[in-house]
Amino acid sequence: MYDILIKNGKIISGLGNPWYYGDIAIKNNKIIKIIRFSKEITAEKTINAEGLYIAPGFIDGHSHSDLFILTDPLAEQKIMQGITTENVGMDGMSVAPIDEMNIATWKKHLSGLDGNPEIEWNWRSFSDYLNVIAQAKPSDNITSYVGLGTIRLKVLGMTDREANDNEINKMKKVIIQSMEAGARGLSAGLVYPPGSYQTSSEIIELVRAIKEYNGIFNIHIRNESNHIIPSIKEIIEISKKSEIPAIVTHFKVMGRGNWGLSEEAINLIDNSRQEGVDITLEQYPYTACSTMLHAVIPPWYHANGSEKLIQNLIEDKELIKEDIQNRVDWENYPKISGWENIYVSSVENIDNKIFEGKSIKEIASMRGISDPVDAALELLIEEELAVGMIAYCTNEKEIINIMNHPSVSFITDGLLGGKPHPRVYGTFPRILGRYVRDKGIISLEEAIRKMTSLPAEKLRLRNKGKIEEGYDADITIFDLENILDRATYENPRQFPLGIEWVLVNGKVVVEKGRHTKAQPGKVIISR
Ligand SMILES: [Zn+2]
Q1: Is pLDDT at 243 greater than 90 in this prediction?
Q2: Residue 527 pLDDT greater than 80, yes or no
Q3: Residue where a domain stops, chosen among 392, 410, 440
Q4: What is the pLDDT of residues 487-509, one digit of tens each?
Q5: How far is the CA of 413 from the centre of ligand 1 (A)?
Q6: CA 325 to ligand 1 centroid distance, Å
Q7: Tell me: the pLDDT tens digits for 125-143?
Q8: 89 CA distance to ligand 1 middle (Å)
């Protein structure tokens, strides 16, 4: 007797092969049998998947659920779009390991990104943090990188200078401890302080530490706009010298004048792959990016921590404005997108909630301020940095161009707070509805591969990402005819249509389009 039998559906293995008919028998948390006609098989529960596709559960390789998974373990935004495993600790900014003395500054620093839910940061080491997640009993599986910025904070604080040998050795030790606790690898966010203060040679030294742990290096590159080519070259160099596989996350080219450069960047990557450098890409399918609003302040004002940054915003206002206006030696979002294309996605203060979903330019006029930059700085001061943003930065032609690269896997990179970027609700259904069914940009099986076996392979998730006997029963069953990402920029908090059933570790988490409130997710630490 099996626990669950899924009948009459079209199976997509996750490997990119054409769908086939088969029935799937599940016992405990595993796929035990896949056969064409299952007349002899009995199970406690039978799912009729007639007219539906059965795929491995989707894997979100870039998630910002680091804190919200503790307060909202049902992970509805993810589960309802068919995601069964999400990977946190992104952009160099994991929430662990962390020392008591750094918690206040790091909390503030991350508040525009991961939100600021009411929880006590009662973990210190990376392994403590993973235990805290396990205790929260999430609905989906969680894995995590450890962030290079977090590691640097622990050893050097927010200081803007090169690390010395002694400090590099200390950082290596922390990396090794975190890898031993189960980190999948290292993440970097080279636009975000203090990660942005790290030189290539420091990064190469540190990345080498994960070699014997089968680790990977995932990078938000130093610049995704005017300096994208040297930024890609830097990653090629790091991967080559450290001999560690590198993933360029949310690959895109920002800024109208730069859009053609994606082709040149992809050529660079293809050529380096041919020479034996293991570099791959990740993508989300939207023309707007999303991050913390304090990314509009040049990195050199972030040195010495969040309190000091707020002080800088008050005392050095004119200098900061001048630098935003004139300097291009950093990822200058206002220059790339324009204040009219930068929107506030989340704030903390009730009085400021009216600004969620408004552009900085609109906010300026709502407040009777003539220069939008003043509105942005004011809001950051009032909110003590806890502001999320959405910025329109690329176009659909570019998205389509990048989507077809064989190394691209799909990610949400979704921030959860306020009026969020719709990608946190809609990414995977959007690929299937808009780019597979409606536009025919990518085949169904290839799209599923980029959501399942490809990210599983990158993250070294051994029994996930495929519909195969012996694999974990993480399964997403969907209706391709009706699949639709309903989340929009105007109204993002909407679950998609067409994700009919989701199983995590053999337990039903979505039944006929509804979350069952089951919490069978696990923290994955094995390699
Ligand atoms: Zn991110």
Answers
A1: yes
A2: no
A3: 392
A4: 999 899 999 999 999 999 999 99
A5: 5
A6: 26
A7: 999 999 999 999 999 999 9
A8: 9
| 9 occurs within a structural domain | yes
Sign of the Cα pseudo-torsion (90, 247, 425, 506, in order): negative
Give residue 368's pLDDT: 97
Distance (Å, whole) CA 188 – CA 148: 5
Domain residues for 326? 292-392
For residue 315, tell me if it sits in a domain: yes
Is residue 451 within 8 A of residue 59, CB to CB? The reply is yes
Number of domains in the chain: 2
Is the preceding omega at residue 230 within 30 degrees of 0, hence cis? Answer: no
Kindly report the CATH number assigned to the domain that includes residue 494.
2.30.40.10
Q: What is the pLDDT confidence band of residue 38, given thresholds at 50, 70 and 90?
A: confident
Angle, alpha carbons 99-62-227 (nearest 5°): 95
| Span 92-133, pLDDT tens digits | 999 999 999 999 999 999 998 898 898 999 999 999 999 999
380 close to 386: Cβ distance less than 8 angstroms: no
Q: Is residue 45 part of a domain?
A: yes
Lookup: tokens for 313: 């915003």
> What pLDDT score does 256 carry?
84
Strand ranges inside 36-110, DSSP E: 43-48, 53-56, 58-60, 83-88
Cβ 502 vs Cβ 513: under 8 Å: no
Give helix 148-156 / helix 200-207 axis angle, nearest 10°. Answer: 100
Tokens at residue 121, please? 């940061």
Token pair belonging to 165: 């040998």
**CA 18–ligand 1 middle distance (angstroms):** 32
* CA of residue 469 to ligand 1 center, whole Å: 34
Task: Give the pLDDT confidence score for residue 455 in this predicted structure.
Answer: 98
Are residue 475 and residue 386 in the same domain, yes or no?
no
Q: Which of 392, 417, 438 is at the close of a domain?
A: 392
Ligand 1 mean position, distance from CA 64 (Å): 6
- Distance (Å, whole) CA 196 – CA 208: 19
The number of CA neighbours under 13 Å toward the Cβ of 329 is 2
User: Is residue 508 in some structural domain?
Assistant: yes
Q: Helix crossing, 126-136 with 165-181: angle to 10°?
A: 30
129 within 8 A of 95, measured Cβ to Cβ: yes
Q: What is the pLDDT of residue 48?
A: 97
Q: Is 525 left (phi over 0), alpha (psi -120 to 50) or beta?
A: alpha
Interval between CA 196 and ligand 1 midpoint (Å): 15
Calculate how far, in angstroms, residue 443's C-alpha sits from the geometric centre of ligand 1. 27
Cα of 423 from ligand 1 centre, angstroms: 12
For residues 465-482, average pLDDT:
98
**Residues in the chain, how many?**
527
Separation between Cα atoms, residue 290 and residue 292, nearest integer Å: 7
Give 219 Cα–ligand 1 centroid separation in angstroms.
10
Res. 257: pLDDT tops 90: no
Local structure of residue 312 (DSSP, 8 states): H
